[in-house]
Amino acid sequence: MKNLIKSLMIFAIAISMTSCSDDDNNNQPQTIAQIASSNANLSILVQALQRANLVDTFNSAGDFTVFAPTDAAFTAFLATTPYATVNDVPVPILTEILKNHVLAEGFTSSELMTGYYKTLAKGTASSTNTLSMYIDLTSGVKINGGASNGGANVVLTSANILASNGVIHVVDNVIGLPTVVNHAIANPNFTSLVGALTGAGQPDFPTILSGTGPFTVFAPTNAAFTSLDAELQPGGIAGVPAATLTTVLQYHVVSGNVLSSSLTDNMVVTPLAGGDFTIGLTGGAKITDGNNRVSNIIATDVQASNGVIHVLDKVLLP
């Protein structure tokens, strides 16, 4: 339905323009590439698309969502890299960065929902599962936690630019290829997990999990931590020694990029903490931990550049 509505809007614009001048080609609905080329504030993006040989892609038929960084956003991004201009960025790297700004279906801001979307980009962790993007609509349209987390915000005055082959939303930052840490920070349902990982007496988990990896993280939600706190009363989580909490957190991390399609019934998994837990697939994917407690896997395959996240409704205990 939403694609039909956008098509009708574009068709109506085209009819209106054609009635003014049938001979004026500029009145025809423009492609994403054409619109970007005519916007002086997106000149570096156009230069990057040319270098990555992606102009034809965004001139062709399709239905894309493009989050388009401004020239100021690209300039700020380049200042954090060894590269003076986009022409100095190696093409393979530049190509994946650009594809990380693109969804394979066109969405206006009113059609987006809070949650995960798949971009066209790939990191080094998986050759098949494209990178995930987390969009938060709590206040505006925030992508991957905003600029402070390697993401971006949609510039609301420059959103919903309709093209013949999709929608453009101008953003205030170049969106980096997210790590598992970026994804954990971006999703407000993981604030308890992030708090535990960065708590007093813990190793530098953010730096470790921002490394090459790849890592598979079984990530408990905030509700899972609340449940564990009640389970551990009277002392609760606060009464758990730091070293014990370290082991618990490491128990949720597995070496490698293990996608849900690789999980099998009764599969025994050995996490970084040692010990093991067992995957069950009967009646839905679940994990039986070292204490014979059962957690449900409620979301899978949140792909990062250096690993993948599966979401749990209960904290695992070794």
Automatic annotation (TrEMBL):
Write down any Gene Ontology CC term.
extracellular space
Q: What is the residue range of the signal peptide feature?
A: 1-21
Keyword annotations from UniProtKB, A to Z: Signal
Q: Sorted alphabetically, which InterPro entries does this protein's record hold? A: Adhesion/Biosynth-related, FAS1_dom_sf, FAS1_domain
Q: Short name of one Pfam family for this protein?
A: Fasciclin
Domain (FAS1) spans 29-175, 177-316
Indicate what this protein is called per its UniProt record.
Fasciclin domain-containing protein
